[in-house]
Amino acid sequence: MEVQSLVAWNLRQLRVRRGISQDDLAYSSGVERAYVGYLERGMRNPTITTLAKIAKALDIHISQLFREPESGEVVPSTLSPGRKKAG
Q: pLDDT tens digits, residue range 10-40?
C-alpha cells in the first residue's frame, strides 16, 4: 500500500472508531475540514506537522497513522452526517 493510501486508511479507521466527526477532528487539530476529507480519501500529501496535529487531536502516536493493516482488516464506514462523539 502506498504511503498516502496508508495514512488515509488509518486516519479514517482511527477517527471513525473513536466516533469523531471530520468537523470535530478539524476543529481540534486546527486543520481545515475539507482537508481532513481529502486526507481520508488519499487525495492530499500532508506535511509531518499536519500529521502531528491530527495525531495529537486523536490522542495517538503519529506512528499509528503509518500502521500496515492486518489481513482481512476493513476500514469502518463513515459516520452519519451530524453524528457526535458519544459521552
A: 999 999 999 999 999 999 999 999 999 999 9
pLDDT digits (tens, 9 = 90+) for 51-75: 999 999 999 999 999 999 888 877 6
**Other Cβ atoms within 10 Å of 9 Cβ, number:** 20
C-alpha cell at position 68: 500496515
Burial of 28 (0-12, 13-18, 19+ CB in 10 A): middle
Domains and CATH numbers, the chain: 3-64 (1.10.260.40)
Residues in the chain: 87
CA distances from 11 to 53, 58 (A): 12, 9
Within 10 angstroms of residue 15's Cβ, the number of other Cβ atoms is 22
Quote the pTM value: 0.82
Q: How far apart are CA 44 and CA 5, in angstroms?
A: 10
